[in-house]
UniProtKB/TrEMBL annotation:
Residues 4-120 form the Response regulatory domain. This is Response regulator. The modification 4-aspartylphosphate is found at residue 53. The keyword Phosphoprotein applies. Pfam families: Response_reg. PROSITE patterns: RESPONSE_REGULATORY. The keyword Phosphoprotein applies. The gene is cheY-1. Keywords: Phosphoprotein. InterPro entries: Bact_response_regulator, CheY-like_superfamily, Sig_transdc_resp-reg_receiver. It comes from Zoogloea oryzae.
Amino acid sequence: MAKTILIVDDSASLRQVVAIALRGAGYDVLEGCDGRDALGKLDGRKVHLIISDVNMPNMDGISFVKAVKQLPAYRFTPVIMLTTEAGEDKKREGQAAGAKAWVVKPFQPQQMLGAVAKLVLP
């Protein structure tokens, strides 16, 4: 059975690029256009990994990760932050919220898939 990955980014074109790479590697993909939208997709179904942007309207990525970690079903779901933010302060904030990896845009799909393969839940 394919593993499911939730992509959260306010850029539809970026979600598409990531989704194509993930589907090509055999993953199922869910998409959220911001943190609030993505929280609505976490409805109890199994999600093996979350890839989230940091800067989004309605609910930013750090707030979203904090909210995900409050949900018992998703507390241990690994999160990769995929963002233009390269600052150490933001990285520390993301790690404190519960993010496991930080990939800076623009990214190479192979680099992202490598991080996904290491973190995706069995």
